[in-house]
Amino acid sequence: MPSIELLMLTGSALLLVAILFSKVSSRLGIPALVLFLLVGMLAGSEGPGGIFFNNPQLVQSLGVIALSYILFAGGLDTDWRSVKPVVREGLVLSTCGVAITALLVGWFVHTVLDFSWLEALLLGAIVSSTDAAAVFSVLRSRNVSLRGDLKPLLEFESGSNDPMAVFLTVGMILLLTDPAAGLLTLLPLVVWQMTIGAGLGYLLGKGAVLLINRLRLDYEGLYLVLTLTLVALIYGFTSLIKANGFLAVYVAGITMGNSAFVQKKSLLRFHDGLAWLMQIVMFLVLGLQVFPSHLLSVISVGLAVAAFLMLVARPVSVFASLFFSPLTLPEKGLISWVGLRGAVPIILATFPLLAGIDKAEMIFNLVFFIVLTSALLQGSTIPLAASWLKLEAPPGEPSALMKDGEGNPVGPCALNSILLSSDSKADGKQLIDLHLPRGVLVAYIQRDGEFIVPGGGTVLNSGDRVHLLACDHDLPGLRKMFET
């Protein structure tokens, strides 16, 4: 067993190299996740690093933890107003689209390889979903700007389609290991996983907001620890009752991100950084788990399956799922191309390894090769595809007028000062509990000759002079709130 000092040195060195590579990725137009995987492979037993690593159980465990926090951070940073118009399309893609993709890939693999129908469908299920970590990192990079509702639709689909892929993968493994099981026994499971997972995510997300606002912790750093704990609690509890924990943490993130709570800005920044750390660790470990020499035997087959997935299965599933959608042909075409595969398929590929499926090792190597091909080809050409299909967002135009949360002009705004009276309903309340109008910003509070920069948990006292940035139409309501 290596010493703790050596483990810390090696781990920090790998993280540093991965961070430096992320800078290179933006210049080369290659998704950062590909470089993270390559760093892991170079550090592995067959690379210059020479670190022997072969532990599918640890890979799966780390992947589950990392994905929980990545999905939560993605939900936390999702504006529900932008997602709401495309919820129907996103849900259809994340269910029917995933199922169609799995079926088509399974048919192709059964046709060209010596795979039984169930083994082929298992491979199809593993690669059926787009990857949230990959999609979030690529679409939120500086060189990708899409028109209309395309970006929220793609992010919502990638964040919500993992439950279907997990269900199909687990279902196929169950059918392979237990011949007595039938397809009809799986239907109640998918209904339970989807509905209870989403419902618990919403309820626990609302409960988390209430808890954060009511605790009034003495130390700001404890709010970070609290949210870390809540994500683990939401995933763990939901999974223990056999619902889908990934869907629960994503929905909880969306619920919290679109609610007001104490320390929201700092928590958003913290979870964004944590999501990056989780992505790096996850892809490094996945790279370590792979033996490059084993990929050589699946190159030709892997290329064929990857090409079929990207050029046939994904487009057919998208156009079939969105047949009645008002989206244009170019928009559906771009959605078809942004079918990035990433960590989720590789993590799901460890399930057959642990279950002792006959062709598990070949399935793992094929999945890794497919993911690498998808990330390299699709991830690096999304800006080009958006430009070719004329779906790039027009450059923003500066405006002298202030705008509300919807981006609409709201008229003249200025810094105003209001004295908090002893009869005010706001006396003794936290700022977060006042539910101030969107766009109103409390800049500072003047109290007993001191100036206080407030946070959401700041408690107002009578005699406070509140200085806030607000627009004319909000002032009557604000004066009523603070003065009476």
Helix-residue proportion: 55-70%
Number of domains: 2
The CATH architecture name of the largest domain reads Up-down Bundle
Radius of gyration: 25 Å
In round numbers, the mean pLDDT is 85
CATH topology of the largest domain: Na+/H+ antiporter like fold
| Largest β-sheet summary | 4 strands, antiparallel
Assembly category: single chain
Widest β-sheet, arrangement of strands:
1-4-2-3
For the terminal residues, how far apart are their CA atoms? 68 Å
Number of helices: 19
Which class of secondary structure composition applies to the elements? mainly alpha
| Portion in strands | under 5%
Number of strands: 4
Which blocks of ≥5 consecutive residues have pLDDT under 50? 396-411
Per CATH, the class of the largest domain reads Mainly Alpha
Order of helices and strands: HHHHHHHHHHHHHHHHHHEEEEH
Brief write-up:
By secondary structure, the chain is mainly alpha-helical. The protein contains 19 helices and 4 strands. 64% of the residues lie in helices and 5% in strands.
Write up what this structure looks like.
64% of the residues lie in helices and 5% in strands. The protein has helices at residues 4-28, 32-43, 56-76, 80-83, 87-112, 117-126, 132-139, 150-160, 162-177, 187-215, 221-240, 245-257, 264-289, 292-295, 299-321, 329-337, 343-355, 360-388, 475-483, and strands at 413-419, 441-447, 450-452, 465-471. The chain has 2 domains: 4-388, Na+/H+ antiporter like fold (Up-down Bundle); 413-483, Regulator of K+ conductance, C-terminal domain (Alpha-Beta Plaits), CATH 3.30.70.1450. Helix 3 packs across helix 11. It has a 4-stranded antiparallel β-sheet, with helices on one face. The chain is mainly alpha-helical.
